[in-house]
Amino acid sequence: MSIGNKNNYDVIIIGAGFGGLYALHHFRDKMNLSVRAFDGASGVGGTWWYNRYPGARVDAPSSPFYAYTFSQELVDEWEWTETQTSQASVRSYLEHVAKKFDLKKDIQFETWVTDASFDEAKNQWIIQTDKGESISSQFLICATGALFVANMPDYPGINEFSGECYHTGRWPHEPVSFKGKRVGVIGTGSSGIQSIPEIAKEADHVTVFQRTPQYALPARNRPLTTEELNESRANWSDLRKSMRHRGGWPFKTVRRRAADYTPEERRAVYEELWEQGGIHLAINSFAGVMAKKELNDEVSEFVREKIRETVKDPETARKLMPDYYFGTKRLILDNGYFETYNRDNVSLVDLREDPIEKFTRSGIVTGSGEHPIDMLVLATGFDAVSGSMLQLNPKGRAGMSLKEKWDVHFDNYLGTAIAGFPNLFMIHGPGAPGVFFTMPLGGELTTAFISDCIEHVRREKLGSIEATEQAELEWRHEINEIANNTLYPETDSWYMGANIPGKPRQFLGHLRGSQYFDRLDEVARSQDGFTLQ
Ligand code: NA7
To answer: Is the beta carbon of 153 within 6 A of some atom in ligand 1?
Structure first.
């Protein structure tokens, strides 16, 4: 084992969420490298450390698959309890993982990395922390989180608001009481849609400020049975392979051709899938829903009908009608979201027809007047995928900053390496499958790739590995081509960077996760697209 001293390691990892924790375990325990990890939070979890708002859950019927896959022992000993895992449950699981693999001793918590610069003469990264430390390593792993930098709206007077104010992505650790309060919630993505029903159960009144109505589908969350858990444990190695080859989830998808069905028969299929749970409608209806406009329109209309049937007040139902292509914004699994609008203490403001003009000390003023509130909940999302890397803003060759490099396009190679930034690897960077694949497994597979690259450099006694600009260019075309053959680019979403004013418009994911990881395997063997020296 190469032992690092206090100031120099083989590998520095930034972030102690799913990606960073696994990377630490892998590099330290499987590759015998000296590793130090840093995280600004006081504990493990990354995104799951911060997003502890009421109702926070994985946005998929996740258990036991939204979890690490590499250890049968871990799979056998962890008791998942519900199909749609709660934030508290994910956090307990990650605490357990950290303890089981003795990870915390190599993580420096409550420490922000304030700078990271590449020393070309020594082929090393030097990081500075807010504790005044300067530490170096040959390799820098950025597990900084795809959903980390909170998007804070910039409405006139918002800082004058004198009531309590919380962003869902920075929720306090102390309990927040909504009792007797008038709560304003801005944002109806996953975080808004998961939290609004919970807040409404306790608050005096909830006013939802909605910019874009959403296609939320029933989560049908339920207890996971012992038989189900044991069955997946018994077949874990096959399930793991299925996940790798079926886009991150082991579920068998039915390949149906829309043309083989009459409209009435298709409708019956949608109904059946809806009853099974929204995820089935999302992944299992007909081939081409995400690429063919007419077919997509049909599913969109089906969901709109369901919303109309659920929401009693026709005017509220009208405002809740989504009008973009189904699935082109992150699909949301809800637990009673639309039903919440039938409560007397919930009202909806459609910001597209009644925009926010300003905040006062005690409320929000829209075109129709003032909405007095005691508490503001900002469920306004994140500067997703690229935001955490830009916040870190590493400096590569010749001192070039990532902000300069990514001024107009988030160029990189394979969603993990960046030309001009040798020996730096991202986990879930722009263009990686990220949220289009099961993220814990995606992190494991990406780490395996990075590990092959590091192994290669060390075996050959080289100093650095760096993506070429040509490889970046080809990669840019490759991921854009995949996205451009779908309806995703037609919609303003965080997938496209459209939620952040001024952010370059670029599809931020890779839609074919299994193919992507095949590609990583190929490149791990060939080192194509990299310069090694
Ligand atoms: P999202 O999905 O980005 O949702 C944010 C919501 O906030 C969305 O409804 C936005 O409307 C709205 N928003 C953002 N900025 C504003 C302003 N300035 N004014 C009004 N409304 C605004 O974030 P979440 O936290 O819900 O979920 C992120 C991911 O976490 C999710 O996709 C899952 O993968 C887990 P818009 O739709 O942009 O018009």
So the answer is: yes
